[in-house]
Specification:
Elements (H helix, E strand, L loop, with lengths): L4 E3 L5 E3 L8 E3 L8 H7 L1 H11 L5 H22 L11 E5 L5 H14 L8 E4 L1 H4 L6 H13 L3 E5 L13 H14 L5 E6 L1 H10 L1 H4 L4 E5 L4 H14 L3 E2 L1 H17 L7 H21 L6 H5 E2 L9
Parallel strand pairs: 4-7, 4-8, 5-6, 6-7, 9-10
Antiparallel strand pairs: 1-2, 2-3
Helix pairs in contact: 2-4, 6-7, 10-11, 10-12
Length: 313
């Protein structure tokens, strides 16, 4: 006579024997986690990595973003397993010269944290000194609190943050710093504060308040772009606009960028922003040249010649 079979929720199969006999338990093998399963589970990371991959350079930044993702992901797994989890604050500092991609990366981090349920919204609120510092006693604290309120659920990104510490003891910038520090503690898991600016200036800024350094456990360093990377950025911008450089124009742009990088103060060179300005001005110059021509074909409409290139003074 066939024995009745009873399934249990734990995946085992129990065969119920005749009266007086014990149940025979046949354990079922656990389902193996395949690479496909892992790939689906980490779809969030893949999406962000694809967007970061579209950016030129930033290899160390891309690695650090993955490390932050891994820390948050494993922490959630530890919590699900009943293990202790770290409640490390995620406030960050971005050090680097203008045009090195700091704002772009901040937006991607907001998007990543929103998808991982670290932030409820993931939006980015950009601010600078004028947005925080008021004109009379008490005004600065209120302006700063209002900005933090707007950033709840997302990221408050303060560019040139070192300017808050430039005015001395009587400057209202100190009041903004004190207000930020208080809310970093009180609402540390409700929003993320990212302070950005030149490397040396940010180091000096941190030295003004010894308690600040420990409150920013994650520091991203954004290096200046090389000439090759700047050319890559320029070509990507042109491709997006459906333009291309002639051979002479490409050579002229490369030589100019090499000259500017070797003769300019690194802190004043705006990297990708500089390249964007050159392209936008050159596109307008090409339009003026074509306007004076009697005829032009598709190739002419797309091509920037060396005579079209316009460099900032």
């Amino acid at each position: 006579m066939d024995q009745p079979i009873r399934m249990k929720n734990n995946g085992q199969i129990n065969i119920v024997l005749n009266a007086g006999q014990r149940e025979a338990v046949i354990p079922q093998p656990k389902k193996e986690i395949t690479k496909k399963d892992l790939s689906a589970e980490h779809e969030i990371l893949k999406e962000i990595e694809d967007e970061l991959g579209a950016l030129v350079g930033m290899e160390e930044i891309k690695k650090m973003v993955k490390e932050v993702y891994a820390w948050i992901y494993i922490n959630k797994k530890r919590e699900a397993a009943g293990l202790k989890t770290g409640k490390q604050a995620l406030h960050m500092m971005f050090k680097g010269n203008p045009g090195t991609g700091k704002t772009t990366v901040a937006r991607l981090i907001g998007k990543l944290f929103h998808k991982m349920n670290v932030l409820s919204k993931g939006h980015l609120i950009e601010a600078e000194r004028a947005d925080l510092v008021g004109e009379y006693i008490g005004h600065t604290a209120q302006k700063t609190r209002d900005l933090i309120k707007k950033a709840i659920g997302g990221i408050l990104f303060i560019d040139e943050a070192y300017s808050l510490g430039r005015g001395g003891e009587k400057d209202f910038g100190k009041e903004a710093i004190d207000t930020l520090v208080k809310h970093m503690e009180d609402k540390q898991h409700e929003f993320i504060l990212i302070l950005a600016g030149y490397s040396n200036e940010m180091d000096y800024f941190l030295s003004l308040n010894p308690g600040l350094h420990s409150r920013f456990p994650i520091v991203f360093n954004f290096p200046d772009y090389t000439v090759d990377e700047l050319m890559d950025i320029g070509k990507r911008m042109l491709k997006e606009k459906e333009y291309t450089l002639s051979i002479d124009a490409e050579r002229k742009l490369r030589d100019h960028l090499a000259f500017v990088k070797t003769t300019s103060n690194p802190a004043s060179f705006s990297n990708g922003r500089y390249v964007r300005n050159v392209i936008e001005k050159s596109v307008r110059a090409q339009a003026m040249r074509l306007l004076m021509q009697a005829t032009y074909d598709r190739h002419e409409l797309m091509t920037l010649r060396s005579s079209d290139l316009v460099f900032p003074d």
